[in-house]
């Protein structure tokens, strides 16, 4: 008898329309797990607060996705009371061997309340991210303390915590009470299929949520310095813009820097468009203040593209400076600009770095390898032998 797994995760509401890094990971991991003989059944539970095309969708003989209307407010403060009640009924119906939550936020909190055999994957240090975003208001600091308490609770209860980088493993080491293993996130095969890269124009790509943590304003400042030396350079900005006020401020900064003819804001795109943008880019750039293991960098590497990033979080585990891209210190805009210029002016160097990055990605982010290691963890926790 194989494994019966429930995964509580952010998952695409529509096939192919992927929003954010976690959806990219889960939509890659689920079919890779389902392809394994050890899996009999995998049910994905995806909370939403809006409208969905369907309430249940089959994705092959083993996978069922259920879209559940979730609690709208006070999730952290109430410990997701309404969602937990809903999930308990489903767990009683499905009787899974494993409940796997994809994050140490609300989904991890729900999972650890409904099953003793819970695995949680760390997709970001949400308590640290909340602290970074907290300003002077009492309300925001209260939220930070509630989130920090939730994270401690999840890490105490989970039977297994999966870290996706050495960075987050070290940051959480003293808080994890169960098994603590390291398994990187997978990258979808269609990104690997883009390699080797063709020659490109003088075009850079930023892909991610437009938020202060990603530091798009600093990135634009660095790009303005690069444009002074490479007048034909272009920067494409892809990703959701959840805070319209902040997005407006970023656009105003673009105008102030005189970059309106050089920068294109595309907004949210589907996976096919994202692949097109990566394929056309000379390099992919990030200038974040904080990261764990950015999905876009793994996708770029898989596609044979060099990457330029600030040296934060787990990025240095992905990018080997001078081998598959370049690392700069956070807020060092001149250094970032200098590396932009280097790659914009040297196509052969960009292709060479991209080839090396593709090899690294094959070793670290292959979906089959990630699925195999995840299954090994499932079997150990469920007390089952490999078929």
Briefly, what is this?
With 387 residues, the protein is an alpha/beta fold. Helices cover 44% and strands 18% of the residues.
Give a written overview of the molecule.
Helix 2 (81-94) crosses helix 3 and helix 3 packs across helix 5. Helix 11 links the parallel strand 12 and strand 13 (307-310). The protein has helices at 20-34, 81-94, 106-114, 126-133, 138-157, 166-172, 189-192, 216-229, 244-256, 271-280, 295-302, 333-344, 347-365, 367-382, and strands spanning 3-8, 39-48, 56-58, 63-69, 98-102, 118-121, 160-163, 179-182, 203-207, 234-238, 263-267, 283-285, 307-310, 325-328. The strands form two sheets. It has an eight-stranded mixed sheet with strand order 3-4-2-1-5-6-7-8, with helices on both faces. It has a six-stranded parallel sheet with strand order 11-10-9-12-13-14, with helices on both faces. It is α/β, with parallel strands linked by helices and 387 residues long. The relative contact order is 0.13. 44% of the residues lie in helices and 18% in strands. It has 14 helices and 14 strands. It is globular and about 65 Å long. The longest helix is centred in the middle third of the chain and has 20 residues, at 138-157.
């Amino acid at each position: 008898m194989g494994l019966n797994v429930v995964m509580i995760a952010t998952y695409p509401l529509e096939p192919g329309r992927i929003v954010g890094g976690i959806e990219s990971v889960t939509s890659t991991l689920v079919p890779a797990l389902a392809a394994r003989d050890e899996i009999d059944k995998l049910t994905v539970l995806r909370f939403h607060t809006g409208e969905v095309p369907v309430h249940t969708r089959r994705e092959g003989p083993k996978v069922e996705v259920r879209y559940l209307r979730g609690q709208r407010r006070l999730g952290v403060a109430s410990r997701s009371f309404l969602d937990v009640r809903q999930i308990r009924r489903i767990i009683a119906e499905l009787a899974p061997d494993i409940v796997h939550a994809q994050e140490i936020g609300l989904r991890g909190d729900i999972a650890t309340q409904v099953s003793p055999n819970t695995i949680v994957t760390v997709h970001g240090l949400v308590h640290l991210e909340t602290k970074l975003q907290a300003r002077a208001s009492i309300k925001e600091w209260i939220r930070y303390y509630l989130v920090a308490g939730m994270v401690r609770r999840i890490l105490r209860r989970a039977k297994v915590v999966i870290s996706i980088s050495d960075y987050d493993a070290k940051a959480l080491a003293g808080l994890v009470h169960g098994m603590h293993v390291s398994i990187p996130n997978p990258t979808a095969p269609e990104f690997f299929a883009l390699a080797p890269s063709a020659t490109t124009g003088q075009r850079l790509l930023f892909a991610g949520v437009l938020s202060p943590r990603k530091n798009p304003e600093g990135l634009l400042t660095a790009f303005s310095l690069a444009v002074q030396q490479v007048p034909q350079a272009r920067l494409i900005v892809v990703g959701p813009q959840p805070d319209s006020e902040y997005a407006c401020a970023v656009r105003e900064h673009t105008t102030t820097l005189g970059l309106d003819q050089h920068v294109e804001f595309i907004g949210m795109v589907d996976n096919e468009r994202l692949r097109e943008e990566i394929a056309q880019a000379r390099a992919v750039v990030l200038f974040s203040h904080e990261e764990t293991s950015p999905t876009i960098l793994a996708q770029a590497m898989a596609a044979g593209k060099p990457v330029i990033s600030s040296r934060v979080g787990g990025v240095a585990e992905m990018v080997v400076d001078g081998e598959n891209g370049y690392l700069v210190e956070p807020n060092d805009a001149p250094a970032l600009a200098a590396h932009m210029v280097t790659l914009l002016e040297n196509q052969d160097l960009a292709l060479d770095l991209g080839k090396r990055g593709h090899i690294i990605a094959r070793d670290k982010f292959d979906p089959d390898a990630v699925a195999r290691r995840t299954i090994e963890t499932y079997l150990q926790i469920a007390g089952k032998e490999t078929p």
